[in-house]
Design a protein that fits this description.
heterotrimer; A alpha/beta (249); B mainly alpha (291); C mainly alpha (319); B: 291 residues; 2 domains; two-stranded antiparallel sheet; 2 strands; 76% helix; C: 319 residues
């Protein structure tokens, strides 16, 4: 393993990460670094290991080999809730709202547990923070509604709002735009862009190439658990192996 | 104190017992293992079947095995109805179904148990047949014929079910719906109906197993409690949904119980299956031959 | 002290005062025998709902915690002649440790696996106690009631008051959890454990906490039973009816709010007493089972759910 020299501005570092399920190798010796405030696109055909990588970053899965470093700390042994408190947030491919709660209450969970707020701070203050996040996401009018009343795009936005409420330094958005209409995609994309402007690194997993191109500073392409290309969006898109992976040969 | 003969006898009886446990558990392998229904009332249905067999045997002198097969259509219907009720109430509605689904089946189990007590009383009941009471002698060992009968029928039942699930069209449909409901729906089949049918089969099998239960030993109404441990132990050890695994796991349980019974006496027997179950759940939840 | 807290504690004081007055004015012992059982079920149901209602983990080993409480009291009385207060306190401690143990053992188990594991533990504990000569084994053990403490003129009346105190403690604890961060965390855990974990909720810690507190209160509620019955034997101390009754009472009452299990326990407790006396104890269990199934199917949010639907109430409840 290469000695870890944390470069200036390095936020997340993944070193020699390998994850297998029985005989199936989902991630094969992945090493990559994400910088503070970076807009990082993650692409690859279905089954290439993108969500597995996200799960290893957020702590849902433990890798078989390799380490995950966040702000120079080895977080590999930490459970997801501790990573959330250190500033790693994620949304899920299929939204997972807390169904017995209102939209506001969903965010309150994040504020109660992950945002690192003072315990003595009154709930009203946290509610105020939640409202400002909801307003930003365009969900202010739905604050006291049950999650069952939300539309698909509203659920995706709430997912992101809840992730934002944890006060993250790194946000992983897992196919937040899947199945949305063009205007809805633009909505979500604009939201993510504005978030990235606040020194929050965002890893965006998407299949919608225009969105990835517009959004990303750098793009990484996975195929069958390996990195086959990493670099600027134009470089990666021009890469023949990437084109093969998507179109198949 | 320790004799190889004794141990061998215990192991042999354990294998016979294990095959019986397989027949008892195989219905749960389908309803819980494949269909994901928290069928805690499975042992209660088992005991109910035993009492049904008793009734036919006592009132009309019908052979208990035959009685078991006679009541299995009734139990098939019982399975259909139970699954429909469960599906309409819980599976369709999604959230919070977990707690209430489990509570639903606990409630049913208790209702069945109490109804049995009210109708039959708490005393033990047993059946009579030509093969009950006689035994086979092999060397130093004495194997009751009824154990052999139960063993043979149980083996037949388990193997037939395994063949049914892997070779017939309906059987494969059942396994398919357990793995990929959406895919099945896209092919035009109705997954709910298939699951309902599967649940019916699982309950019908329980009827025959109930006959074996009362053939092997007298039954009493609270017997379902210890069988919760045994059946779930077998199903979990086997790895959910594996029928062949059920046979192997059941034999392991049977042998374990038999050995403990011989060495330490009957007062620890109820705890064996539960201790094994806890061990497997804690250490290797996907079972020994996992899905 | 906000308004809700004042209302709650005033209510608690009034309740205890009423209980005291009852013990001074009513001569007949029967209401206290029956009342003790009902109050005991209130304690057990409220305690159970911390884990079963808020966290969504259905503990079917309530009978084990209850039995452990009974036998802890038995041990303390037989070995040390300990007073009732000590019996209860130590039983609570043992119950919390048992709860912690259950939580650790089952930490990777969800849903029905957790429930089956609790049954497994209950049977193992019961079998062990049955084989334990020192506390009388299967035959059980007789106990001697100590002298009565004033201001009570009978031991049962005192036990009735003690159980009333335990009700206040159990309800106050559950209410505190419900209204706190812990309660919200448990609710998130119940809705979606994975999402909760990724949103920063320390699910393992909260589960262990819920197990420990729930276990402590159930065992504490069981400890006085040894003195109440003046004997203990495994089949009655570990009777599965405790598990099914408490499950039914909590779910029928409704688990979203601590009032639910209280209502459920009172309603079903009274029904149980009436049926057991007038018809039979088997019919009592049958009615319990049927009501459980009916409510679980038709009124999923329990009595409090029905009450909310029938009256045009505020959206968020006062507690």
């Amino acid at each position: 393993m290469t000695p870890s020299i944390a470069s200036e501005g390095s936020l997340l570092r993944i070193d020699a990460l390998t994850k297998s399920f029985g005989g199936f190798v989902a991630l094969d010796n992945i090493s990559v670094e994400v910088r503070k405030g970076e807009r990082f696109g993650l692409i690859g055909p279905n089954g290439s290991g993108k969500t597995t990588l996200v799960n290893c970053i957020s702590g849902v899965l433990r890798p078989n080999k390799g380490v995950v470093l966040f702000r120079d700390e080895d977080i590999t042994p930490l459970p997801p809730n501790q990573r959330a408190r250190r500033g790693i947030a994620r949304s899920f491919q299929i939204p997972r709202p807390f169904k017995s709660m209102t939209v506001m209450e969903n965010l309150m969970v994040a504020l109660d547990f992950a945002a690192g707020h003072n315990v003595l701070e009154p709930a009203s203050h946290r509610r105020g923070t939640a409202m400002s996040i909801l307003t930003r996401m365009g969900l202010a009018s739905k604050a006291d509604e049950a999650t069952a009343t939300l539309t698909q795009v509203e659920l995706r936005k709430m997912e992101l709002a809840r992730a934002m409420a944890t006060g993250p330094k790194l946000l992983v958005s897992d196919e937040a735009m899947a199945g949305l209409s063009t205007s809805e995609v633009d909505e979500v994309l604009d939201l993510l862009m504005s978030l990235a402007g606040e020194d929050i690194a965002i890893i965006m997993i998407e299949h919608i190439m225009q969105a990835v191109m517009r959004f990303s500073d750098r793009v990484m392409c996975l195929d069958a658990g390996k990195i086959i290309a990493i670099g600027s969006p134009t470089e990666v898109m021009a890469n023949l192996r990437v084109q093969e992976a998507y179109l198949g040969t | 104190m320790f004799s190889w003969d004794l141990l061998l006898g215990a192991v042999l009886l354990g294998v016979l017992l294990g095959c019986f446990y397989a027949a008892v558990s195989v219905g749960l392998s389908i309803s819980f293992g494949l269909l994901d229904v928290p069928q805690v009332a499975h042992p209660a249905f088992l005991v109910l079947a035993s009492y049904g067999v008793y009734l036919l045997n006592d009132s009309f002198d019908i052979d208990p095995l035959l009685a078991g097969f006679l009541i299995s259509p009734l139990f098939f219907l019982l399975g259909l109805v139970t699954y429909r009720l469960y599906y309409e109430t819980f599976e369709k509605r999604g959230s919070d179904a977990g707690v209430r689904g489990i509570a639903f089946f606990f409630g049913i189990a208790f209702i069945v148990e109490v109804l049995i007590i009210l109708y039959f009383g708490v005393d033990q009941r047993s059946v009579s047949a030509s093969y009950i009471g006689k035994a086979w002698r092999i060397g130093n060992m004495r194997i009751p014929i009824r154990q052999l009968v139960a063993f043979a029928v149980a083996l037949l039942l388990t193997v037939s079910l395994a063949v049914y699930l892997s070779k017939t069209f309906m059987g494969r449909a059942i396994r398919a719906v357990a793995q990929d409901e959406e895919g099945l729906r896209l092919m035009g089949a109705n997954p709910v109906w298939i699951k309902q049918f599967a649940f019916g089969i699982a309950t019908a099998v329980v009827a025959v197993a109930g006959a074996l239960l009362i053939i092997i030993a007298p039954v009493e109404p609270t017997l379902d409690r210890v069988y919760i441990g045994r059946t779930f132990c077998v199903v979990v050890m086997a790895g959910l949904g594996s029928i062949t695994g059920t046979l192997a796991a059941a034999i392991i349980l049977g042998v374990a119980e038999s050995i403990v019974l011989t060495m330490f006496g009957a007062s620890w027997a109820p705890a064996i299956s539960f201790a094994l179950l806890l061990g497997v759940l804690a250490v290797r939840p996907q079972g020994l031959l996992g899905r | 002290m906000n308004r809700n807290n004042i209302a709650f504690w005033s209510g608690a004081v009034v309740f205890l005062a009423a209980v005291l007055v009852m013990t001074r004015t009513i001569g007949n012992e029967y209401p206290f025998f029956a009342g003790y059982v009902i109050l005991q079920f209130v304690v057990l149901s409220v305690a159970w709902s911390i884990l079963g209602g808020y966290a969504g983990y259905v503990n079917f080993g309530t009978n084990a915690f209850f039995g452990v409480g009974v036998y802890t009291a038995v041990l303390l009385v037989e070995e040390f002649g300990a007073p009732l207060g000590v019996q209860i306190a130590v039983a609570a401690l043992v119950g919390s440790l048992l709860g912690l143990g259950v939580g650790l053992l089952t930490m990777r188990m969800r849903g029905i696996f957790f429930s089956i594991a609790t049954i497994a533990l209950a049977i193992i504990i019961e079998t062990s106690v049955t084989n334990w000569r020192f506390v009388g084994g299967a035959a059980g053990i007789q106990l001697q009631r100590p002298a009565v403490m004033p201001p009570f003129d009978s031991y049962v009346k005192m036990l009735f008051f003690v159980q009333a105190l335990l009700v206040v403690i159990a309800v106050a604890t559950t209410r505190a959890i419900q209204n706190s961060r812990i309660g919200r965390g448990l609710q998130a855990l119940r809705d979606d454990e994975l999402a909760a974990e990724c949103t920063g909720v320390p699910t393992l810690r909260l589960k262990l906490l819920a197990c420990a507190i729930s276990g402590a209160l159930i065992s504490a509620g069981g400890a006085p039973a040894a003195m109440y019955l003046q004997y203990a034997d495994p089949s009655s101390a570990f009777n599965l009816n405790y598990s099914i009754s408490v499950l039914a009472m909590s779910l029928i009452g409704g688990t979203a709010h601590w009032v639910g299990p209280v209502l459920g326990a009172i309603l079903l407790g009274v029904t149980q007493q009436l049926l057991a006396v007038t018809i039979s104890s088997e019919v009592n269990v049958l009615v319990l089972g049927i009501m459980l199934v009916v409510f679980v199917v038709a009124a999923p949010k329990g009595i409090i759910g029905l009450l909310r639907r029938w009256s045009p109430l505020r959206a968020k409840d006062r507690s």
